[in-house]
Write a structure and sequence with these properties.
CATH superfamily of the largest domain in chain B: P-loop containing nucleotide triphosphate hydrolases
Number of strands of chain B: 9
Structural class of chain B: alpha/beta
Helix content of chain A: over 70%
Largest sheet of chain A: none
Structural class of chain A: mainly alpha
Number of domains of chain B: 2
Largest sheet of chain B: 6 strands, mixed
Strand content of chain B: 15-25%
Number of strands of chain A: 0
Distance between the termini of chain B: 30 Å
Order of helices and strands of chain A: HHHHHHHHHH
Radius of gyration of chain B: 18 Å
CATH architecture of the largest domain in chain B: 3-Layer(aba) Sandwich
CATH topology of the largest domain in chain B: Rossmann fold
Distance between the termini of chain A: 11 Å
Oligomer: heterodimer
Largest interface: A-B, 21 and 22 residues
Strand order of the largest sheet of chain B: 5-6-7-3-8-9
CATH class of the largest domain in chain A: Mainly Alpha
Strand content of chain A: under 5%
Number of helices of chain B: 8
Chain lengths: 262, 264
């Protein structure tokens, strides 16, 4: 058991080490020029050397990501509460939420950048559009999924709509909401990066996507990889962080938070 | 007491008003149909004040539906008058115990017991809740979450919550189903003791449970439903399983139940 779990944890690390080593070997043995494929060691060196440029860009991208995630959370939950309170409102508005969700962001972003003069606001709106749907749909589902037996019990015991909301519907929706939030975190980052790409170098923003474009024009391939590495790293950190939040909040009462192997 | 043209007339025991020793409940003209299926057609049922009435019958005959009708949780299209002996509405004066324990998974045993008070915005009487948890034998796990408790313990928390509501009328829908025989036996004893003096309607599919707990035993059968009363064993509840005439009553009840099962 213990050995099996250790191997389970080590397996992705082993794959990663082999991949990186193979990559470095390929670059060295094949003598591939830096402007075509830099090796991982050079990328790491670039990351350190260009940290002064890359770090502020990461901060810019993360600011937009978290702002979008915050607005998506508040807006998604608020809209979900509205949906849960009235089927009629849900029927009227849900199709538009779906339209917003299924239309590719890259297709809307140029329009938004035209109509919204402040680039930062435009980027925020783009990231929000992709991040808010999972929060909305999951929370709506969660609010509706309160145990019907408990709903009846609440009614019999004289609960009003507000105490039913706070003591039953919202706690029941919490695991669903947190699941949506985890998806939304990754999507907000993707939304922010895609929007930055669309805004391009013409924009005043200087996020990581802008650095990638800029480095691409200058054929500074190692820096492109370094920026890409930072974006992936940020995405993983957001996902892991929100996963941790979910486990802490849900504690032991919800099935999804209980480790079945333990 | 079956004819109520001029309003219900209730038997008054010992010159006291029935309110002093329990609330009588009566349901009249109950009607319920699922599509072409006529479950109830002007069905009537009277619950004696302060007594446990056990309701049995084959699955699908409408036991739970009748219980829900009394509780005011009836489905669309159901009909029927529910009257209390003091001519006031029953709403807000009944407690409900379901087959599932219906505990909030995120709340402790104590918080679950206090739920009703919290829902109504009352100041929760923690002392009484603790005393009730003590009475059901859970005095030392009042802070435990439901998922850390066994099925029997969860049922006892649900029983404590039902009692905490302190309502004159208690409706129970197979409250001890899904528990093993020994745990069920103990809970029946506990429930009978703690529910004394309340008007209880207990739906069960366990004949022995009805024989132990029922001051009255009713069997529902047929479509539309008719209700047949079975003579319970002698003595007050909870009756011991080795009560002298229990075996005989058991046989009577089983005969009635198998007859009822044939009619569905």
């Amino acid at each position: 058991m213990g050995l099996g779990r250790l191997l389970g944890a080590a397996a992705p690390v082993i794959v990663g080490v082999f991949f990186v080593a193979g990559w470095e070997a390929l670059v060295r043995i094949g003598q591939i020029p830096v402007y075509i494929l830099p090796g991982p060691i050079l990328i790491a060196q670039t990351l350190v050397a260009d940290w002064g440029t890359l770090w502020p860009s990461l901060v810019v991208t993360l600011k937009i990501t978290f702002a979008a995630l915050g607005v998506a959370t508040v807006g998604g939950v608020a809209l979900a509460l509205l949906f849960a309170s009235s089927r009629w409102v849900e029927r009227a508005l849900f199709p538009y939420a779906v339209i917003l969700q299924v239309t590719p962001l890259v297709a809307i972003a140029p329009l938004l950048l035209i109509y919204i003069t402040d680039v930062n606001v435009a980027l925020l709106v783009c990231a929000w559009i992709v991040a808010f749907f999972p929060v909305l749909s999951n929370t709506t589902l969660g609010l509706r999924s309160a145990d019907p037996g408990l709903l009846e019990l609440f009614r019999l015991y004289g609960a009003g709509p507000w105490s039913t909301l706070f003591l039953l519907r919202l706690p029941s929706a919490l695991p669903y909401f947190l699941g949506g939030l985890r998806i939304a975190g990754g999507l907000a980052l993707i939304g922010a990066v895609v929007a930055e790409f669309t805004a391009g170098t013409g924009g005043t923003a200087s996020g990581l996507a802008f650095r990638i474009l800029e480095a691409g024009y200058r054929l500074n391939i190692p820096r492109m990889f370094a920026a890409l590495f930072l974006i992936s790293g940020a995405g993983i950190a957001i996902f892991a962080g929100l996963g941790l939040v979910s486990r802490l909040v849900l504690g032991r009462w919800h099935d999804s938070a209980i480790d079945r192997d333990a | 007491m079956n004819d109520v043209a001029g309003g219900p007339v209730w038997p008054v025991a010992g010159g006291k008003h029935p309110r002093d020793n329990g609330l009588a409940v009566r349901i009249e003209g109950a009607r319920l149909a699922y599509g072409p299926l006529q479950l109830f057609d002007s069905l009537s049922l009277a619950l004696e004040p302060g007594r446990i009435t056990c309701l049995l019958g084959p699955s699908g005959v409408g036991k739970s539906s009748l219980l829900r009708l009394i509780a005011g949780l009836a489905p669309q299209g159901a009909d029927g008058r529910v009257l209390a002996s003091d001519n006031r509405p029953l709403a807000g004066r009944l407690a409900w115990m379901d087959q599932r324990d219906l505990l909030l998974p995120w709340a402790s045993a104590l918080e679950n017991v206090l739920l009703g008070a919290r829902l109504r915005g009352e100041t929760p009487d923690r002392e009484r809740a603790c005393a009730l948890l003590d009475a059901v034998g859970l005095g030392d796990v009042i802070g435990a979450r439901p998922d850390t408790l066994s099925g029997g313990m969860r049922s006892r928390v649900a029983l404590a919550r039902t009692l905490f509501e302190d309502r004159p009328v208690v409706l129970m829908d197979e409250p001890f189903a899904g528990l093993d025989a020994i745990v069920r036996h103990r809970l029946q004893e506990l429930a009978a003791r703690l529910l004394a003096g309340r008007t209880v309607l207990l739906v069960t599919h366990d004949p022995l449970e009805a024989l132990r707990l029922g001051d009255r035993i009713l069997v529902m059968s047929g479509r539309p439903v008719t209700i047949q009363e079975i003579q319970p064993p002698l003595g007050g509840v909870p009756r011991p399983v080795d009560a002298p005439d229990l075996a005989e009553a058991h046989a009577r009840l089983l005969a009635a139940l198998s007859l009822a099962a044939g009619e569905i």
